[in-house]
Amino acid sequence: MPYLPEKYADLEQFCAEWALETSQERHLKRASSSMSELQAFYDAITPRAAEILTYLDTFPLDALPAAERRLLNLCLSLADVSLSVEKYRVPLLPDAPYSTKFRADTSALG
Amino acid sequence: MLKRPEKRGLPGPRVRADNTCRAEHATTGTQTMADTRPLTQAFPFLGTGPVSTEPYTSPEFFELEKERIFRREWLNLARDEELPNPGDFVVREIEPCNASIILVRGEDRVVRAFHNICSHRGNKLVFAEKGTNSSFMCRYHGWTYGLDGALKLVTAQDKFFNLDRADCALPAVHCETWSGFIFVNLSQPRQSLREFLGGWADFATGYPFERGTAPAYMSYELKANWKIAVDAFQETYHLGYLHRKTMRNMYFTPQDHSGSFLSIDLYGPHRRYSVWANGDYKPPESATVEHLARRFGRNINAGATAGETPITDLCPGLNPTRAKNWCWENAFVFPNLVVTFTPEIWILSRFWPLAQDRTRWENITFYPKPKTASERFSREYGFCHLRDVAAEDVDTMEGTTKALLSGARKTMHLQDSEIGVRHLLHTVENYVRPKPGRAVAAE
């Protein structure tokens, strides 16, 4: 069984680091990455993000197959990472250092 | 201009018969213009002078706050949806009163509140944060209580001496619910919850809280005074400055960057105010992901909601001036509950004082349950953005608390749109050090 849906297999290289299950893990990963690492991940996923989401929308959210769930988790990492890349140009804003210490949980969203 | 709600165009404040007050700013088209006439004019009892920093820094003042506010007033602990079935329970801490409270839905579907203490030798009865039980058994010696708090079983009862079982029921705590908000009161309440909420409940009536079936959580222990933490949610003056990187151009325009809001109501100790968004805000072309997040589902941060107010059909109290550039309502229930209303999602924050310079902050955003991956993505974007914004607030709350503790400044200065800060301080003073003759909005 493939780790990602076949037509997105080339994104497999990002899965180990970015296909994370929880918002907390994804945010810690964003915070501990360099700007060039964030940019590389962003550049790889962003051009295909709209297409990926359209593809994932063909499945019920609460019954995503494992490969599709991993793909969605990549996208959820992109949502967080994009703030660094598109808005702040730093991994975390220097005036907001404690976001990694918040207890955060978005699991009820599915 | 200030307007009388019932006679548009006449300037001047209005204090209503039910002891609530409103002030409004005029709007022109989709833009709010900073008005030269102060909203504060509507609330003469609040004054306009500098305010004392003592309530934020004094340990003695904090001791009085604990006894005269948190031990006496209604406090929101949970939402009704957290306890859908008989036997469902949550345990919530009220640290300023050293109280641990069990909220449990009984077989009769009524939610009751009890102190979390075994009547035998005072052990903490329930150690879990939540769960479903048919009874509560103390792990120390096995005393067991029903969902109604009654003592059901005493192990080795024949070894006790004239045990009064009725007196050994769990200590009940006053518990009432309004529109799904479960409140408790650790004292004998002076008034019912509905009476306490007063005009605030009228304002919020009809809002579809129950649509927010997917809660997302943030919490943190702040090194900050609880009122300083609340204050960050009581004005929009700081949005264009502290949040200039996270919310650039969203909530202010070149014409208005004073933090003015559309209107404000005070309801005794509670309040609400209407916030406008820059309807012209668009993410830069290069912000592909932000555009994508805004395309799939609206969000408080991923896309201002200017121009649409269908929610007022359900909840007419929102955006009372019916401004076209309204985007959210920020509301406060004394002493420690902030509720933000938007057309699609709503957010609450509770602030629990731990010491005069420490506060436990809990924040819950209630989203409609996403049906698609796109919607899920959009919500995650909004949550991550809100987390970054909140992190800026947190760092500032801690910085303010630390700086004030130096004692170098004895006063602070509040501009017109910081009425909420002034009102909270005024209300706290009324509870902590009531003075005969003081104009009271809190009684």
Question: How would you summarize the topology of this molecule?
Answer:
The complex is a heterodimer of chains A (110) and B (443).
Chain A: H1 15-18, H2 23-31, H3 35-56, H4 66-88, E1 103-105
Chain B: E1 14-15, E2 20-24, E3 27-28, E4 31-32, E5 51-52, H1 54-57, H2 59-70, E6 75-79, E7 88-94, E8 99-105, E9 111-115, E10 130-132, E11 136-137, E12 144-145, E13 151-153, E14 172-178, E15 181-185, H3 193-197, H4 199-204, E16 214-222, H5 226-231, E17 263-267, E18 270-276, H6 288-295, H7 311-314, E19 326-333, E20 337-341, E21 346-355, E22 358-367, H8 373-405, E23 411-412, H9 419-432
Antiparallel strand pairs in B: 1-2, 2-17, 3-4, 5-23, 6-15, 7-8, 7-10, 8-9, 9-14, 11-12, 12-13, 14-15, 16-22, 17-18, 18-19, 19-20, 20-21, 21-22
Structural notes for this entry:
The complex is a heterodimer of chains A (110) and B (443). In chain A, α2 packs across α4. Chain A is globular and about 40 Å long. Chain A has one domain. Chain A is 53% helix and 3% strand. Chain A is built from four helices and one strand; from the N terminus they run ααααβ. Chain B folds into two domains: 285 residues, Naphthalene 1,2-dioxygenase Alpha Subunit, Chain A, domain 1 (Alpha-Beta Complex), CATH 3.90.380.10; 114 residues, Rieske Iron-sulfur Protein. Chain B has a nine-stranded antiparallel sheet. Chain B is globular. The chains are: A mainly alpha (110), B alpha+beta (443). β1 of chain A pairs antiparallel with β16 of chain B.
